[in-house]
Design a protein that fits this description.
Helices cover 71% and strands 0% of the residues. The chain has six helices and no strands. It is globular, with a radius of gyration of 13 Å.
Length: 115
């Protein structure tokens, strides 16, 4: 399985056009891609991520953003890149501006995409 490079601008535009529905699909794909890049199993499946985010009115999405950032920090470390507090950054952004957090996650994943 490989990680697909996605255009962040197109994903944001589709999220706006679909009134946020595409953002849920984007979260689903980011969840799967992080599992591939990190080699760690996801905490939940993509479908369960979406369901729990909707049912908890976004609270689970904030938790997911934090754990995803922590995984991406470990990926950075394994590639010899400097790490930061991606978990905290994504948590704060997800709390206030969720699309920006997901866009930054996608930007990080695009570094490891093939082709």
């Amino acid at each position: 399985m490989r990680v697909e490079r996605r255009s962040i601008g197109v994903c944001i535009l589709l999220s706006i056009i679909t009134l946020g529905i595409y953002m849920f699909y984007w979260m689903y794909k980011v969840n799967d891609d992080v599992a591939v890049v990190s080699g760690e199993p996801p905490i939940t499946t993509g479908g369960m991520l979406i369901l729990l985010t909707i049912v908890t009115c976004g609270i689970y999405g904030i938790y997911w953003a934090y754990t995803t950032g922590e995984k991406l920090d470990r990926v950075r470390a394994s590639h010899g890149e400097p790490t930061g507090s991606l978990g905290v950054l994504y948590l704060v952004l997800e709390f206030f501006i969720a699309p920006v957090a997901i866009a930054l996650m996608q930007s990080e994943l695009n570094k490891y995409a093939q082709g």
